[in-house]
Amino acid sequence: MKKTLLSIALMLVVSIAAIAQKRTITGTVTAKEDKQPLPGVSILVKGTSVGTQTDLNGKYTLSVPEEAHTLIYTYIGYTTKEVPLGKGNVINVELISDAQQLGEVVVTALGISRQKKSLGYAVTDIKGDDLKRSGEVNIIESLSAKSAGVQVTGSGGTPGASSKIVLRAPATITGDVQPLIVVDGVPIDNTTTQTTAGDYPFNQNLSGVNNSNRAIDLNPDDIESVTILKGPAAAALYGAKAGNGAIVYTTKRGKSRKGLGINLGQTFEIANVTQLPPRQSTYAQGTIQNGVPTYFTADPGPDHIYNTDDDISGGTSASWGPLISSVPGLSSHDNADVFFKTSTANTTNLSFDGGSDKVTYRFAIGNTYQNGVVPGTNFKRTSFRLTADGYLKDWLKVGGTANYIKSGGQRVQNGSTLGGVMLGLMRMPASFDINPYTFDNGFQRTYFSAGYDNPFYTAYENPFNDNVNRILGNIYISYLGKPWFNVTYKLGVDTYSDDRRQVFAISSWGNDAADQTGQVNYGSITNRDINSDLIFTGSGEITKDITLNYTAGHNVNSSNFGSLYSRGTVLSIPNFYDLSNAANLYSSTSKTRKYTWALFGQLDFGFRDMLFLTVSGRNEWSSTFGASKNNFFYPSASVSWLFNQTFKLPDWFTFGKFRYAYSQAGISPVPYQAATFFKVPIFTDGFTNGISFPYGGVSGFGYDVLSNLGSENLKPERVTGNELGLNLKFIKNRINLDLTWYNQETKDVLLFRPLASSTGFASVYGNSGKLRNRGFEVEANADIYKGTDFNWNLGITWARNRSEVLKLADGVDQFEVETGFGDPGAYAIVGQPLGVLYGSKWARDDKGNLLIDDSGLPFQADQFGPLGNPWPDWTGGIRNTFSYKGVSLNVLFDIRHGGSIWNGTQARLNRLGRSEASADRERTYIVPGVKSDGTPNDIPISAFAYYNFYLGDNGSAVEQNIVDVNWFRVREITLGYTFHPKAWEKYVQSIGFNVTGRNLFLSTNYNGVDPETSLTGAGSNIQGFDYFNNPGARSFIFGINLGF
User: Fold this and answer.
1) Left if phi > 0, otherwise alpha if psi is -120 to 50, otherwise beta: which for 905?
2) Start and end of every TonB-dependent receptor-like beta-barrel domain (predicted)?
3) Cβ contacts of residue 449 below 8 Å, gap of 6+?
4) Is the CB of residue 620 less than 8 Å from the CB of residue 631?
């Protein structure tokens, strides 16, 4: 018993001695500026791994060893502070905001915040206010000219039309060329799904309206910041989704504050058409007959139906008639001026935010209604967004976001369709009055019997409507144990339905049947993405000189896409658009499911705050990979060296960083191509229409000549990047320079390789190609003047990229990226830039002179060839920001040099005698070139032949209308004024006014609509095609913002 008591006594003495060797430090960490507590501040005993974090009230408790002498306090956006341990056990600390450091903290892959100085790859961070200031409804469009190497292509001034964004250059031929879109750490869908008509037109991107890209559903007012991860090194942790880079959006969240914060914003916008192809208004509708310009009437006979009256032809599409002034009763009409209107838009945003030391929240409502410059077009978006974050315990945090969006509107046919508004409007003879657009019986009145709709009829009688209901959301739970061990689980969901209806009235030519019998199309699209992340993070000191941050985790992603299309043709009752009113019915359905799961990890080492090394890896399994190998690994490594910390530099040399990154990312194969499947076949004999199923009431499935052979060896495309960078800052950070050189190669490029007909299949989808992109980027920023009241900041971006196709499939030297026009087409050709325009060329002699035949006209070469690279030689942006007290002025210039566009619009207008140049027709022309005997051409030809067969598209070479385009535009000008009314400070914290002008000025050598627009939209991998594209718009936006 005595021994037991003695043992207990000895244990108590030892325990007391051990306790005496440690001390407990408590305190509160606050911000010096506003004295508010700072939650989540890391506190570390210097030279050890002992540490803790502050709670929601900024309070902390830390047991420190007796030999400890210093505590280190670290918080993002604030200057790190070291505090010596004195005799007291209570240490309260104030941290000073580091505005420069705050600006240098960026959100990277997986939503991880990192100091920009530690990154070994190029990123661009943009404030949400910069997006909002642009006034764009689409958050993709608002990124134009704000970052080097970021190319944004719109689809004209139609509300709700898609915008395509490419970082640096496409890294794939048949896959999606756009970057991954991430919101609050969760990937979301940004698909542009074109509408099929039940029996799948030859190219969805050339048939019908320009549908929205789904990023348009996001409200710019909800965005706090944007980080652009340009290369595979920056986005490698996303694996097979990151081959084209990523754009990470961080949304606004609630803040702990006294009372309820209310913010109300209202904008009003007016817009009009910017640039249209110039047209002549002197000559009437008609053709040349026996060498004499002859007028043709446009209207049909008494029954008001074209092609049924023996004595009335219904006009001609050409404007080669006589002078309008020479025909009694005729006058010239500016139909474009009558058709296009000044559009308006209204946007209202209302948000509430607040919280306590335990819970913060933000609730926002946004509503946008935008009319278009084309009559009848509009886009509507209503958004409800709720975010909440809270601590259940000091070490347990939960939160989430729920966002409901309702969007959609009404659009019209565009581009290469018989009902395209620009096709009908630009071709319309000046002698034809667009109004009225219907006859008394309701049938349309147009200028040409062969099938072009009156634009007003298209706008009002052939609408396309879509209605999208979307839910975006995520929930998370985080265990905040120690600085060296934290765990977060996040579940995200993105689901939407998209219901569409498109009609073509009886007497319209705008359907693919082109028989004026009427048509109704219905479409229903559903999509659901579920994303699950389990992420472990931690940080600590390995030694007093070496720090380590780690990230490790697991990701699961499930995607389900479905569509149902129905089409009814030959309508019986006018204006009754129901499938029961159709004589012929067609339908199609599709379902696509994709499943991916992955393991990933990242280690970030720091040495004396001057040398940083990051290594990461992701191993990914996917249902789209072939059965022979269904997992692939994506490694990445980067280094950042702050040489200003290594060498003693002059005082004016503030900062210097050299960086290098090597990485691999991927592009996933198209689903269901790893196996061979049955389909509803069509059997043809080459002479008849063949046999299709159902046949005789019997369904059938099998292979046909259009089937693709599956490949069990299918694997993702692999994008390998090498990137060098140099970051310099001078004169206390007043001058910043960021230089980047990169070399990216994509191997195992996926292609549909043609097969011999003897195999029973048309093609096989497999890995066979190789691409390369090399480029250089410059981002510079300077405080030209920095004073107490007045400040002037100048920002410059510049980028160039060189793309080359290194290899296609064995035995294949060229591959058409997308079918469509044929001449020209967009091709991948070995040794050429990806997507090069390819088509007919003029025959030339050895010196490059055109060869002229006996008629005085050039003739085509025997073979097609490359015509031009649609990607620019270089792009640039210049931003000036001025501020004086509460007044600010932002001016953004956008520059593009080079890049080819096929001006198919101009070619057709020349042919029809409608172009402005074709008005000079009272003389003869001589085409420059040489005759068969080698002498200069001296054969005169008529204006009709010159504009039809040489400058037009009636048998001429497409080469003639390829234009190398340059432009300089004033992208944005914003004037704002914000003040804080002292008389009402109890109720109103701030009042702001702003006026924004967008696309105010454009100087270009391009003779057509705004060359920035795209015919095929964001759902397409090709660009450089202008065939009656919808025009761009110039807008003025007036806004007011109230903070309560």
Assistant:
1) alpha
2) 437-833
3) 300, 306, 307, 313, 314, 315
4) yes
Two structure tokens written together for 504:
């073509």
Q: Which residue has the tokens 């961080």?
A: 250
Q: Which residues pair with 868 in a beta bridge?
A: 837
Superfamily of domain covering 21-98: Carboxypeptidase-like, regulatory domain (2.60.40.1120)
pLDDT tens profile 379-430: 999 999 999 999 998 889 999 999 999 999 999 887 777 788 999 899 999 9
Q: Are 723 and 231 in contact (CB under 8 A)?
A: yes
Residues of the chain with CATH 2.60.40.1120: 21-98
Judge contact between 71 and 46, C-beta under 8 A.
Answer: yes
| 919: amino acid identity, one letter | A
Residue 456 DSSP class: H
Structure tokens at 708: 């693709």
CATH code: domain 141-257+264-271+368-419+462-675+710-1043 is: 2.40.170.20
| pLDDT tens readout for residues 636-695 | 999 999 999 899 899 899 999 999 999 999 999 988 887 777 666 655 544 444 556 666
Q: What is the DSSP string of 952-995?
A: SSSS--GGGGEEEEEEEEEEEEEEEEEE--GGGTTT--EEEEEE
Using CA atoms of 911, 916, 919, 924 in order, give the dihedral in degrees to the nearest 10.
-70
Question: What whole-number distance in Å separates Cα of residue 950 and Cα of residue 964?
Answer: 19
Q: What type of residue is 609?
A: D
- Residue 1030 is classified by DSSP as P
Q: How far is CA 448 from CA 327, 353, 707, 1017, in A?
A: 19, 59, 40, 28
Place of tokens 């004595």: 311
Length of the chain (residues): 1044
Tokens of 330: 């005729």
